[in-house]
Structures are given as structure tokens and as C-alpha cells.
Amino acid sequence: MPIPVAASLLPGMVFSSRAMSDVANSVERIKDSDSTVLVTGESGTGKELIARAIHRLSRRSEREFVPFNCSAVPAELIESMLFGHRKGTFTGASQDQLGLIRSAENGTLFLDEIGDLPLALQPKLLRFLQEGEVHTLGDRAPRQVNVRVIAATHKDLEQLVRDKLFREDLYYRIATLTLKVPPLRDRPEDISTLISHFISLYARKNDRAISGITWEAIQILESYSWPGNIRELAGEIERLVLYADDDGYIHPGNISTRIRPQSDSPGIEAGAERLDDLLESYERRVITEALRRHDCNVARASEALGLGSRQTLYKKLKRLAIDIGDFLQEDTEPGMQFRA
For 249, which DSSP code? Predict the structure, then answer.
């Protein structure tokens, strides 16, 4: 199993792939910049974790990290939540509200799903990013702030710009420094590392005694494409921890049916094939090939296989149920004899 990269490279993240190491190197270069960072990638790839890692590694780490999801709030409330308002500015404004931008003073504001920010509000956000000032609803004048902004999206912002759904000037403002988080299917070497991490995490969280996971189960999980990325993998591992067999092991049969390959698919079969069975099949094939190469001479085949004696090979032939008569009839030349 790959060795996870030191957590200090990307705090809060577990990985062992070259692709994520490249992301970590980029984070190291930009962590102390005051420029806006745009983190892109499919849903579930860990964009917020990247943003939090940037904050934790930066000189702003002792100040607040303030997250805001642009798609999770009604459009009419976003301006008030971000920029704040004065009491009585509108119906329901019963008290002053500082706003998330000012709450992140000297820290980091994380704007998740910025591609869903209403078009009408984008000029005000652009002014904040360009001038470093916010105009609270109800105030007569704007005020200066010192906030670093990290934005994230799973959408194609360039396409949104072409479709007139995202301002071009705002796009170029936030895309100065862009980090692309690769999907899990493009870094399969991270899967086993994440499996180990999530098993330990959810076993502790759910107070379950998990002995481990079988090799066959790992193979099935590694062969799946994970369209939901790390979020989907984490959810599946938590389910597996809760549904592990009485022996404490996670077996192929515990895995969700949507993830297990069909029985007629090539590669790993959908049954609970054990590692012992795979090794036995491989051993049988190696022995029969060695016997063919050495004209069925048991002594020479034993020596070639490093078994030391004919008796050892005879025992293996018996254990593996290799029928000598059938074996000689397969591809042997006429008149070939099975010789000791």
C-alpha cells in the first residue's frame, strides 16, 4: 500500500499520488499570496479541503476561515449575508449584521460554488475584490477590509462566460491563480490510501472493531470509477464499517451492488473469491507449465521450480488435484512419458 504523503503538505488531506503532490506543490507556492485563488474540480474531489489547507498553511492561519456556499442560500439573501446590513434597511432587518466578508477580516473567505452566484450580485463582488472594500446595506460609504478570497466551482466558468451567465471581468479577477483538483479516477493510487484512512476514521467514529478488509474487496473498490469521487468513497467505507461481517473483516459481499462488477465482467469476479483460491490457481498453472517445459520430468521440474526434491512436487500435485493422465493428454507429443 502506498505511503500517505506527510499531512503538513496539505493539512487535512490524505493522498499518495503524483497528481495530488503536484497540487500540494502549487499550494506551497501560493499559500501566502493575497491574490484570489480559484479551485476547480468535480463534486466530491475535496475543493473545500484544499481551501482550508491553503488557509492553514498561510500567514493568515491564526485568523478566521469563513466558508459560504453560493448555491445553498436564496439569491435575495446572499447580498445581506456577504456584505451585511444595518438595522431597518429592509423588512426583517431587526438588528445590524456584520456580514461574512467583514467577519473574515485578516483571514480567509471561501466562496464555494461561485458559478452559482447571481449575475446581479457579481459587480458588487468584483468591486470588493478590486478595491478591497465592502458597502454594507444601509451604510452611506464603503469601508476597507483585509480579506483573502478563495473561490471554488465544479462548473466550467469559461462556458458560463460564453453563455453570459458569469461576468468575464469577474472570471479573470478570480482565475489569476487556479488549482485544478483531479478526480479520483485519474489518481487510482490514492484509493487504497483513502480506504485505510476512512476505515480507521469510521471505525473510531462508530465504535466498531474492524479487523481489516480482504484483498478481493480492495481490488473491487480500486476498479470502480467513483463518479462521486472522495465523497462517494467515504460514504461507501462508512457503510462497509457498519455492515462488516462478524469476523470484523470487510468482504466483497458487503460492497454495494452498484460498485461490484457484474459476474460476466472481465477481471475480478463478483463472487467472494478468496486470495487462497487465486494463489492456488496460479500455483497450478506454474507447475503444469514447468512440467511441459521439462518433458514431464519431475526431477528437472522440481529443480527449476526451486522445490528441492521430487517428493515436494508430488505432494503439490496431489494437493492441487493435478491428474497426470489428463495432463499428459492435453498438449504433449505422441509417446511422451511421465518420468520420475
Answer: E
Q: Closest Cα partner for 219 from 200, 237, 257, 192? A: 192
- Which run of H or E residues covers position 281? helix 275-293
SS3 110: strand
Please state whether the predicted TM-score (pTM) of the whole model is above 0.85: no
Please give the Cα distance from 169 to 122 (Å, whole number).
10
For 231-240, what is each residue's pLDDT tens digit?
A: 999 999 999 9
Which portions of the chain are predicted below pLDDT 50? 1-8, 264-273, 325-340
Element (H, E) at 133: strand 133-134
Q: Which residues pair with 177 in a beta bridge?
A: 37
Whose cell is 459476474? That residue is: 263
- The whole-angstrom separation of Cα 126 and Cα 272 is 56
Q: Is 221 helix (H, G, I), strand (E, B) or coil?
A: helix
Euclidean distance between CA atoms 47 and 165, whole angstroms? 22
79 in Cβ contact with 117 (< 8 Å): no
Q: What is the pLDDT of residues 69-127, one digit of tens each?
A: 999 999 888 988 898 866 656 666 667 778 899 999 999 999 999 999 999 999 999 99
**Distance from CA of residue 8 to its chain's centroid?**
18
Tell me the DSSP string of 165-198. SS-HHHHHHHTSEEEEPPPGGG-GGGHHHHHHHH
d(CA 260, CA 244): 16
